[in-house]
Specification:
globular, 8-stranded parallel beta sheet, 14 helices, alpha/beta
């Protein structure tokens, strides 16, 4: 193996940190001081220590939407230019999942064209909801149709929906709302018909798919009794869920890992660290503890990512 490929690795451009500091602090809480210290060299040093050949950069929650479309367009462009600059300056070490200025659909279509055709990014990085609209919302259909046309890799990171944030007192959003919002995003794409309509797009979901692996059987069994839902996933609910990819960032307990593994097998699992929130050693130690066959370990840590993004096979 020629080094791990980290598909869940966050970037913090200086202007993003300055403009969005308060929004980021609200989401990250105690992690914010660590984020303020993020530097490209710090990321490379962590990668070198743990045999990570390439990290695909993306924004974490809360993303770039703070209520103003013009500002969101500027920030998405700033973040994408910055990440692409790092990929250019550190050949082979960084990939880029570009931010889109959603919920602005036309602005997002323009950014897709710029990100893929000019910056040559490796995919897009989206949040699981935008203003209480999940990705299967009909408003967003043109964006997913264009990404499907480009056979794009689409990476989702969870964020808390305003509707549910703070619903349970003293429970931080990343603890339970993030995994449930990932699940909402997947179900939204499934039963809007987006997954069926976009067979050439490749979808990656963070943290082992959140609660989805545990709920997949329940989702399938209830859908069987709903002809309207069956019509939107005519290949079958499990067919669509099994073709998705799930990263293992934060999936360090055998119950969570085995649920994801049983749903999709190791062929759809990707190595992810959630750096700088966690040291890469957390993900590596988790894999060590699962005592996987060497072939499955190689698939998760590198080969599955190469299958999705062969440009990293260097």
């Amino acid at each position: 193996m020629r080094g791990r490929i980290d598909t869940h690795h966050h970037v913090y451009p200086p202007k993003y940190l300055t403009v969005a500091a308060e929004h980021i602090r609200q989401v990250t809480h105690v992690h914010f001081p660590r984020i303020q210290k993020w530097m490209p060299q710090q990321a490379i040093e962590a990668m070198d220590r743990d045999d990570i050949a390439t990290a695909v950069l993306s924004l974490s929650a809360p993303g770039v939407w703070f209520g103003n479309l013009a500002a969101t367009k500027r920030m998405a462009r700033e973040c994408n230019d910055y990440a692409a600059g790092l990929a250019h300056d550190h050949k082979g070490r960084f990939g880029v999942f570009a931010a889109l200025p959603l919920p602005g659909v036309e602005a997002s279509l323009q950014e897709i064209e710029y990100a893929f055709d000019v910056l040559k990014v490796d995919g897009v990085g989206l949040m699981t909801n935008y203003e209480n609209k999940w990705p299967g919302d009909a408003t967003f259909a043109p964006v997913f149709d264009e990404l499907n046309r480009r056979k794009a890799v689409i990476y989702f990171h969870p964020t808390a929906a305003a509707t549910f944030e703070g619903l349970v007192p003293d429970v931080p959003s990343p603890m339970i709302e993030f995994p449930f919002d990932t699940t909402r995003a997947i179900v939204s794409l499934l039963f809007s018909g987006t997954l069926f309509r976009c067979p050439d797009a490749r979808f990656i979901f963070s943290h082992g798919g959140g609660a989805l692996p545990v709920l997949a059987g329940r989702i399938e069994s209830i859908a069987r009794n709903r002809p309207d839902l069956i019509a939107r996933a005519p290949n079958g609910t499990m067919h669509e869920l099994k073709r998705l990819y799930y990263d293992i960032a934060g999936v360090n307990h055998p119950i969570a890992f085995n649920a994801a593994r049983q749903l999709v097998g190791t062929s759809q699992l990707l190595f992810g660290t959630d750096f700088p929130f966690w040291s890469p050693q957390v993900a590596i130690s988790g894999l060590d503890s699962f005592r996987l066959p060497a072939s499955e370990r190689r698939a998760i840590e590198r080969e599955n990512a190469i299958g999705l993004m062969p440009q990293f096979n260097i």
